[in-house]
Give the backbone structure.
Amino acid sequence: MSATELPLIGDYSTPSTALSGARIGVVTFPGTLDDRDATRAIRVAGAEAVSLWHADADLQNVDAVIIPGGFSYGDYLRAGAIARFAPMMDKIIDAANSDAKLPVLGICNGFQILTESHLLPGSMVKNDHLKFLCRDQVLRVENNTTAWTNQYAQGEEITIVLKNQDGQYVADEKTLDALEAEGRVAFSYVGWNPNGSRRNIAGITNEAGNVVGLMPHPEHAVEAGFGPDHTGTDGLGFFTSVLTHLVGGQK
Amino acid sequence: MSAAEVKKFNMDTVENAAATPETELPWAELGLKQNEFEEVVKVLGRRPTAAELAMYSVMWSEHCSYKSSKNHLRQFGDKVTEEMKKDMLVGIGENAGVTNLGDGWAVTFKIESHNSPTMIEPYQGAATGIGGIVRDIISMGARPVAVMDPLRFGAIDHPDTARIMHGAVAGIGGYGNSLGLPNIGGEMVFDSVYQGNPLVNALAVGVMRHEDIRLANASGLGNKVVLFGARTGGDGIGGASILSSESFDDSKPSKRPAVQVGDPFAEKILIECCLELFKGSLVEGIQDLGAAGISCATSELASNGDGGMDIELTSVLLRDPTLTPGEILMSESQERMMAVVSPDNVAAFEAVMDKWAVEYSWLGEVTDTNRLVIKWDGEVIVDVDPRTVAHDGPVYDRPYARPEWQDALQADTFKASAAGANLPSTGEELKATLVELMASPNLCSKNWITNQYDRYVGGNTALATPDDAGVIRVDEATGLGVALATDANGRYTYLDPYHGAQLALSEAYRNVATSGAIPMAVSDCLNFGSPEDPDVMWQLAEAIRGLSDACMVLGVPVTGGNVSLYNQTGTTPIHPTPVVAMLGKLDDVARRTPSGWRADADGQAIYLLGTTFDELDGSEFANLRGHLGGLPPKVDLEAEKTLGAILINASRDGMIDSAHDLSEGGLGAALGEMALRYGVGARVALDDLCARDGVDAFTALFSESQARAIVAVPRSEEVRFNDMATARNFPVLRLGVVDASATSLEVQGQFDLDLAELREAHEATLPKYFG
Amino acid sequence: MPRIVVDVMPKPEILDPQGKAIVGALPRLGFTAFSLVRQGKRFELTVEGEVTEEILAQARTAAETLLSNPVIEDVVNVEVVAD
Amino acid sequence: MPRIVVDVMPKPEILDPQGKAIVGALPRLGFTAFSLVRQGKRFELTVEGEVTEEILAQARTAAETLLSNPVIEDVVNVEVVAD
Ligand SMILES: Nc1ncnc2c1ncn2[C@@H]1O[C@H](COP(=O)(O)OP(=O)(O)O)[C@@H](O)[C@H]1O
Ligand SMILES: [Mg+2]
């Protein structure tokens, strides 16, 4: 059985779409929690999810990769610190930096792993209130030109789930200025800053726009009945964005 | 002396025990009574070895043997009809009961206590409570899918309550969140009776296909026994260190930790690797290690199997090399499992362990001797009939009697008391009372707690806080799912244990039905004081009798549970607190009913189902005024059944969009919660209700009569809905309408309560005390 | 400004999941020399002015009561460092 | 057995939420002498046998690569302690 197989969850009727040829990898580390959810989101969006095991070094020809949330290695040392050294991460780092610019989305722990891997600048420390926080969170899409955000309107406000312990985004002032100047803040918190993140940053992108990381969880907002307040589906756009991006010739 | 030599020196073999019958043994320090020790000697035909003594002492403890409650608990097994057994795939006695959901799906759930560990170390105590119950679920062959946490702490303003609250909630969150299990509900009650003895109960639920059900037994001659997961350390064996010889043992840490530290990461790995073992059919039997550790796992596996078991204890991987055999047998180190594997599957088993980097060691094998034989470096240190350890512990018929004070307590009714004078009656007073109640410690918003729990992970949560029940989808293809609620009211049970326990069951049943699910099975956690106190023993006996009688009437079997005794400070016991967890089934979770109306419900009719009596004794309102006396609300199980049927049918047939049952705080609190759920107002009137049921406005709002619920019905469904209730002869009354343009809850002729003001009061309480 | 350093470690007999995770990761990165890792906490308390005996005593008490949990941790060191 | 102690502290310019919470709690408990608290980590790496220069170098590299994140933390100390 592969790590992200869904042994207790029936099959979906996958929407038939022209995009369903796309293969999106979902990485599972020891301690990853949201890999099944990410897999579901990919299927709901109409693509094929491919399970990637942290200890393997074969990307299996996927067209994009999602590093889902959880507590890899317990997050005991620092969130994402140990996972960053997995063989699969070496492959992902290379592919993301290569000319092919593999689209990579890091969600929550995945975002933390991307910063530890230096694919994205800055880092995360404990929430300023020091508690785990689970809530429905409003975000503003600050950059709708990335591989993972192109189906949103610039400035659109979306509600997705936030749930973490170490979600306070920090970086030095120079980096923060650069992020803002270059439009690399992808998402910001609206209404209330839930963790003390610098400049209300919820998510960022690399220069090329193929690597995006954010703390909140779009994969928990793709099915009516199970998303924020059991209705929201604002997260689906992440997954349709990458499919659009792939079809748009990047592949 | 080297560590190995010390161990050898300390070794008390069976041979040695037979040769030295006069050796003094510390049985009293290990908690055995004289008669119990004599029984052990009789069973063995000789004095026990040190290791055997360790095993019997933990396995014959109250916690593991249920010696005070066993005689009473039998009623749960006896009072079941054929109808109730229909969907029960595994009943009481296994790690957790299993209920058939249909379509080849099964669900297993269980609730357990971790009270005293939480008092000593709130974070770790509560965390390992979650860890332990989740392992019970895994050991049935299931994937755990959700947890719940009924809590009871001391007075909200007592300084020690903050310590427990911060630690326990962070521990439950820290552990559960790291496992990827959504927390879908629980309870939070503050009462000074729990000051020195907080209650942390933990529930886990798991799902599986029928063919994946696993049981804890060691069968098949020659099959291998393996221990895997965390290494064994000195956790939770404070008492057992008596077994080591003082003078030759300077090498060991002076004091064994009584506290177990949890490693949720290790448990998450254990979940995944067990599922992979089940998927590949790589284990014949499996047992989690909880209380009494290896003693429990080996003796239970062996006695439930068809033969015996041979174990080499030096093969156990240790975190602390100085542990003696007795300590190893008693250790309660967390995140360990024991399995029985056929020789053909050994290689495949090891491959799964290696993939997940889980440590394991082969300890021995299944034999045909009917004996559990444990060796230390080849020398026999335990040779017992495993049944005598696991199942034939002492059973006591403890004396019990209705307490002398019970009559006086029941005679002291609220309205006749000084506290019951000057009840609110004007509109302004009723409004202020509702705000005060909804801001009170027990009825205030639990967001401060639930915000620290992940309720979304897994993507199958269809309802969670603050709805009446948590709802989890099981099958994505069909929407098949389960609902769960936990309830107890210690004050009601104190006033009348028989009916109080039934009220806990009634409320849990009602909560599940309100969400639209069909109640199916019960797990219970009986939190009581000392069984050696005849008053407490009576409370326990009455609660079990009440619960089992009511389960018969409601047609829901008890499939498992846990008894936690000696919950007291000095000689003062806690209120008897039988926490009841109810499991229900939804054919399609898309049909679940949330506990409040949304703005698009504008104009829907608000109906009250059920009858309101003058029942304020033991209520939250009386509690606010510091009074506890009289009789709890009347139990009406037939009415609960009919109400449940109406709520379930109305949900299935799309007649209602929201529903909320009435419980603590009565109609007032229920209306307030429904309006706050999505911040949408309503207009209601009480006149018809007061006239029909012969109560005043205060009683209408705050009485805690049972078998009641509020529903919001779309205009187009009103006739059908009324007809359905009337056809069942169930009282139904139109109270008012949802008003999406209103920002208030208006009780006509009484008051108009601004929702922002109500929310502010409702949500400020826990942050005010806990930051 | 002078600081008082307080070092707190998990008790030796208590499971240390943090240390366990690290000791598992080290060899994968080629660090093979370490057989055991334990992770504790280091606090730096800044004092304005001079560190008197009374202040050091305060730090010791704070270390035992607030900064460590005596059920599972030991204070292994309290010392003054000057900058 | 000898151990190598590695101390890691949050960078001074990075707000340390845990230190901040402690500095807030201290005066409430009567500890008034401390103007600033920072919470870092202390690792103890056990070495079987002697601590060679090579092993110490391993510890230093591990401290910089795995045990700390240079974006937010500084390694303030790597030293050998004997038991
Ligand atoms: N300790 C807790 N953990 C999780 N959820 C909780 C906890 N305490 C209360 N809740 C949730 O808050 C909501 C309100 O609780 P309560 O008033 O006890 O519900 P009810 O009266 O329906 O039993 C419910 O959804 C309940 O599950
Ligand atoms: Mg309810």
Observations:
- Chains D and B do not touch (no CB pair under 8 Å).
- The beta strands of chain D are 3-10, 34-47, 73-81.
- Chain D has a mean pLDDT of 93.
- Residues B 468, 511, 661, 663 surround magnesium ion (ligand 2) (CB under 6 Å).
